[in-house]
Each structure stands twice: as C-alpha cells, then as structure tokens.
Amino acid sequence: MKIALVNAFSVNMLNGDNQAVDFAPISGMEAREMLENGFLSFIGHESTATLLSHRLGIDVDYNRQSYRFMPRDQVILAQYTGPRLPDFAVELPEGAHLNFWLIQIMRRVAMFRDGNKQFSVHQYR
After folding, report:
1. 62 and which of 8, 49, 91, 103 could share a cystine (Cβ 3.0–4.6 Å)?
2. How far apart are CA 91 and CA 50, in angstroms?
3. Burial of 92 (0-12, 13-18, 19+ CB in 10 A)
C-alpha cells in the first residue's frame, strides 16, 4: 500500500472496472499524520506544493506526473479553492480554502434491483 498526495481527482486515475470511489473529509492534522512516514507527491503546481509544505510542515514535492490508483492505495486530496495562488505563496489568500479528503477505491461485489431502484454493494480493496 502506498499513500499519494494529489491536488485534483479525475476518473482517469481509476485502474479497472467495477469500482466506486469513497471521499471522506479529513483535517489537515490527520493528513499530516498520514503523510509524515512517507508518501508520493503528485502535486502538479509548484505554488500549491510550496503552500502545502508550509501548511503541513513536511516537504511536498512538485510533480506533474499522472497518478493511477492501485489496489489498497490511499490518496489524500488537497483541494485548494480560491484565487490563483501567487508564486511561492506560503499563506492562503483572502477568501481561499484548503480542504483535505481521504480517497479510497472500492470494488463492486454485487448489484441488485428493487423495482425501479438499482443498488450496488462495494468493499474496500
């Protein structure tokens, strides 16, 4: 299992069929605790990597490579919302927000219908 840090999510990150995605909000402190023992950075903007390094207190590398989920991976999404970050910003601009999400992939194990409704049963990979 590896932990990856990303600043965006795309369906292209999925690796296979019959998958569902679970997004759970986490705090910055929880993100830091999960990342402090090692992670792969897929932060595609240098200014975002600089901001995250300062906010989390750990080195976050700038890396424009694409990420693909592998079984049992955990991904932390650092979601920045706000105006364009100035180069090498270490503080959030006024009105900006930084939210963290734990993303895990689930595999569909069953599907059934009840009248017009369709249900799926998933389990974490």
Report:
1. 49
2. 10
3. middle
Domain range annotation of the chain: 3-124
Residue 122 C-alpha from the chain's centroid: 20
Higher pLDDT, 10 or 30: 30
The position carrying tokens 């909000």 is 25
Q: Alpha-carbon distance 51 to 80, whole Å?
A: 10
- Tell me how far the alpha carbon of residue 36 is from its chain's centroid: 16
Give the dihedral sign, CA 49/54/57/59: positive
3-class SS of residue 52: helix
Task: Characterize the bridge pairing of strands 40-42 and 3-6.
Answer: parallel
Convert the pLDDT of each residue in 25-74 to its tens digit.
Answer: 999 999 999 999 999 999 998 989 999 999 999 999 999 999 988 878 89
Burial classification of residue 79, based on how many CB atoms lie within 10 Å of its CB (0-12 exposed, 13-18 middle, 19 or more buried): middle
- Please report the pLDDT score of residue 20 as a whole number: 81
Tokens of 62: 């700038």
pLDDT for the residue 120: 74
